[in-house]
Amino acid sequence: MTETSPCRVLVCTHYRFGPQAQSCAMRGSEELLAALQQAAAEGRLAAEVEVGVCFGHCTIGPNVKIVGGALLHGVAPHDVAAVVDAVAARSD
């Protein structure tokens, strides 16, 4: 019997600088990362949560990639339940 690898959730925490710059970090992705990591630690999110690379959608971030699943845009800390649902849908 083989063991399946856990789901990975990647959160962009990239900063862009400049007068017109928009980025996931400037839109609260570090707070989102902490909320998702807490949900995983509490067992509400069945995934490993990690810092990810820039996904190139800075103007609609924060962006979250469920490895093997969806790329989510505009995710905020209050959206943790939606990420939990997206992870569960990946494993269905």
Structural account:
This protein has 2 helices and 4 strands. The longest helix is centred in the middle third of the chain and has 13 residues, at 29-41. The protein has 92 residues and is of the alpha+beta class. Helix 1 (29-41) links the parallel strand 1 (7-12) and strand 2 (47-52). It has one domain (7-91): 3-Layer(aba) Sandwich (Glutaredoxin).
Number of helices: 2
Secondary-structure-based class equals alpha+beta
Low-confidence residue ranges:
none
Multimerization status: single chain
Strand content: 15-25%
* Averaged pLDDT: 90
Any idea what the radius of gyration is? 13 Å
Quick one: how many beta strands?
Answer: 4
Query: Fraction of residues in helices?
Result: 25-40%
Shape: elongated
CATH architecture: 3-Layer(aba) Sandwich
Topology as a string of helices (H) and strands (E):
EHEEEH
CATH superfamily: Glutaredoxin
> What is the CATH C level class, in words?
Alpha Beta
Biggest sheet: strands side by side, in what order? 2-1-3-4
Protein name: Thioredoxin-like [2Fe-2S] ferredoxin
Overview in brief:
By secondary structure, this protein is α+β, with helices and mostly antiparallel strands. It contains two helices and four strands, in the order βαβββα.
